Amino acid sequence: MFIRYGEGYHYLNDVKYSYKGPCLFLLAPDDHHIFEIEAETEFSVLKLNSVYLSGEQDNSGISEWTSLIDQLLAFTDNNRKPLISSSEEMEKIGAMISLIVGEWTKSKNSQNETIFHLIRAVFSLLKRNVFSKIITHEKPENPLVIRVIGYIHQHIYHPNRLRTSKLAAKFKLSSGQLTNLFKREIKVSLKDYTDAYRLKLIEKELHYTGNSLKEISNRFGFTDMSHFNKFIRRHLKVNPKELR
User: Fold this and answer.
1) Please, are residues 63 and 52 in contact by the beta-carbon 8 Å criterion?
2) In angstroms, what is the C-alpha Rg of the chain?
């Protein structure tokens, strides 16, 4: 939800937040919210349907696109304030939102290819601004660590690619060098970061989709249901069924 101008209060899941445009909110599927408007406000609301969530418009980069949606929805659990603080970035997003609204006004077609790619561009800007905050409040400055985190996010559904030895080889470091660098920059271990990020996305799937436990287990690369159940119990102290 993009607010071009105006101010007031946003009541999101019974919590009160102030807003002042321009600003942007990302809402999860089961959120409930109302606005208390104190100054005239202009809203633009983008609601993603199956075309955008499944990548039906364009088969290129579908896994990256759906992964990005998962990442940003995971972020909403920890941050309900406007997502972008930079006025320069908000100006870019505002321009793209205007183009999206213009295209929709002319075509009224949910499968409009231009709208599809503009929405992808908006979400890419969101990722650039918030991805490092999804699990940790530490903002990495080391370019290599930023690349490692991006790689983890991109391949979270392929755990074999995220083994420490394979990550180290990918980034031309020894396993010890990689784990020490990551811990120094992020303040959590590489394994703990990866597990926390995977767990956050699994929780979203359990809460917001009708996928079976087996489907979710397969999606995240668990070898069998036993390993999936143990992973959930180890971190959350409950069985997966209790999270539905």
Assistant:
1) no
2) 19
Helix (H) or strand (E) run with residue 41 in it: strand 33-44
192 CB-near residues (< 8 Å, 6+ apart): none
Q: How many CA atoms lie within 13 A of 60 on its CB side?
A: 3
Higher pLDDT: 16 or 135? It is 16
Question: What is the mean pLDDT of the segment spanning 126-144?
Answer: 65
Amino acid at 107: S
What lies within 8 Å, CB to CB, of 92 at 6+ separation is 125
Residue 11 phi, psi (nearest 5): -95, 105
Task: Report pLDDT for 244.
Answer: 77
Average pLDDT of the segment spanning 22-42: 87
For the chain, how many residues are written?
244
| 17 strand-pairing partners | 10
Q: In the structure, what pLDDT confidence band is assigned to residue 77 with cuts at 50, 70 and 90?
A: low
CA-closest candidate to residue 81, choices 133, 19, 127, 130:
19
In the chain, ranges of CATH 1.10.10.60 domains: 143-243
143-243 topology per CATH: Arc Repressor Mutant, subunit A (1.10.10)
Cα–Cα distance for residue pair 51/58, rounded to 1 Å: 9
Mean pLDDT within 179-205 = 91
* Stretch 202-227: mean pLDDT: 89
Q: Are strands 15-20 and 2-12 parallel, antiparallel or unpaired?
A: antiparallel
Collect contacts of 13-18 with beta carbons under 8 A, ≥24 apart: 13/80, 15/80, 17/80, 17/81
Query: End-to-end alpha-carbon separation of the chain, Å?
Result: 27
Higher-confidence residue: 61 or 29?
29
